[in-house]
Amino acid sequence: MDNExxxxxxxxxxxxxxxxxxxxxxxxxIDKDIQDKFSFKPGQFVEISIAGIGEAPISISSxxxxxxxxxxxxxxxxxxxxxxHTMKAGDRVGIRGPYGNGFSVEQLHRFNLIFIAGGxxxxxxxxxxxxxxxxxxxxxxxxxxxxxxxxxxxxxxxxLQEWKQYADVEVTVDKGNENWDGHIGFVSELxxxxxxxxxxxxxxxxxxxxFGPTVDKLKDKGIEEVNVTVSAERKMQCGVGxxxxxxxxxxxxxxxxxxVFTYEKYQEIxxxx
Length: 273
Ligand SMILES: Cc1cc2nc3c(=O)[nH]c(=O)nc-3n(C[C@H](O)[C@H](O)[C@H](O)COP(=O)(O)OP(=O)(O)OC[C@H]3O[C@@H](n4cnc5c(N)ncnc54)[C@H](O)[C@@H]3O)c2cc1C
Ligand code: FES
Prior knowledge:
Layout: E1 8-19, E2 22-29, H1 32-37, E3 45-50, E4 54-59, E5 70-75, H2 79-84, E6 92-99, E7 112-118, H3 122-134, E8 142-148, H4 157-163, E9 168-173, E10 183-184, H5 187-192, E11 200-205, H6 211-220, E12 228-231, E13 247-248, E14 252-253, H7 254-257, E15 260-262, H8 263-270
Parallel strand pairs: 7-8, 7-11, 8-9, 9-10, 11-12
Antiparallel strand pairs: 1-2, 1-6, 2-5, 3-4, 3-6, 12-15, 13-14
Bound molecules: flavin-adenine dinucleotide and FE2/S2 (inorganic) cluster (FES).
């Protein structure tokens, strides 16, 4: 029987610095058959591991339509991610997954879409945005709002620029600098000052502190809570419903039932996160 905790060997095909503390890793399984068969949904995550150090859940940042490799955008915050930031193309890692529920792209068909990301929250959203843009005709208008703490922390600058061809893209920073002439303020303020049709669906990824103010602004524009989805990340270990680390409210396994929730469901469990 296959051991679901056994990571499969993979190699870093390329490593690109996005900011001072965030890198984009292009990864492929060593076994070409496994890579060819690897399929996932935007919003799902993998467990990436380094022998002798540990493993961490990381969202897949690339869209499923690409199958020669997948990408992870990783911020350096501790033991495993520090080590990953010293690694280079050709180095080996272990990968298990994909895990979690992911976003339902079909559910978004025909809606006007508003994607709202804060900080590293753009990593999972990038997979969804690229998927939606690859079948652009199935959706109404598309708005992408991204907030970073400061200009130097803006990730995926090239993508944000490219998406302007297909969508309204606005970026804000909490704190500007002498080179920044864009918006300064929280990402929820971008929602506040935008014309939004009530037939819109919003997807929010980022720190939980941005959810409440952002959803309040969406509701002011007539968007119902049932048409708002969030990705709620919680400390996880196994990723497969076995260790109990991610249970919220005594019953919801975030690694299995999440990390993507309707905002309604998120509110039920948020006090336990
Ligand atoms: C479903 C999911 C998807 C994620 N996607 C991404 C992603 O796309 N990119 C990315 O950079 N990070 C992502 N994270 C967070 C990432 O898993 C943690 O940053 C990582 O586990 C830290 O490991 P470490 O050994 O480097 O840090 P540690 O040495 O374990 O800890 C360093 C610091 O990070 C905090 N931390 C540890 N584990 C987590 C965790 N699982 N979630 C949040 N904080 C944690 C600790 O409290 C501590 O403050 C995701 C987390 C989850 C649950
Ligand atoms: S992370 Fe182990 S049960 Fe969810």
